[in-house]
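seq as requested:
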Amino acid sequence: MTKHEAVKAYFEPKVEELAETLLNFNFSPEARDSISLITNYSDKVRKKYITGNVQKEYGFSIIIVKPYSSEQDDLNLEAMNFAQAFMDWMDEQNEKKKYPDLGENCTVERMENLQNMPNLSGVNCEAGLARYMIQARIIYRERNVNV
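struct tokens:
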């Protein structure tokens, strides 16, 4: 299993629980209640050790599409709270040390949100939809198998 497959498999059960839909990978449709995982970078080297081991990062964004309102109601607040709850779940998984399985040569050190709240990354007023973006990364150590 590749790192991409492992990260997608890790988030799929939570997405199905929350949105009763499948997780989109590297595609974010203009569809109500869709949740997508967009890769930003993979295998980015943070540190190299004399043992040959390497600390790396896997960066990604979670895009959540929710209904949007230009009225004086709580629809936008509810959407922001939904996205914030997803971030909080990710923080809980990090505290519990429940991480994606990146393979036998990798040990995940932490998973972290790169911001303290979701970004409102776009609004489609005509369709009544808003995109909320969560940026995150997984920091892991990869063992040198040639030693």
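The CA atoms of residues 110 and 139 lie 5 Å apart.
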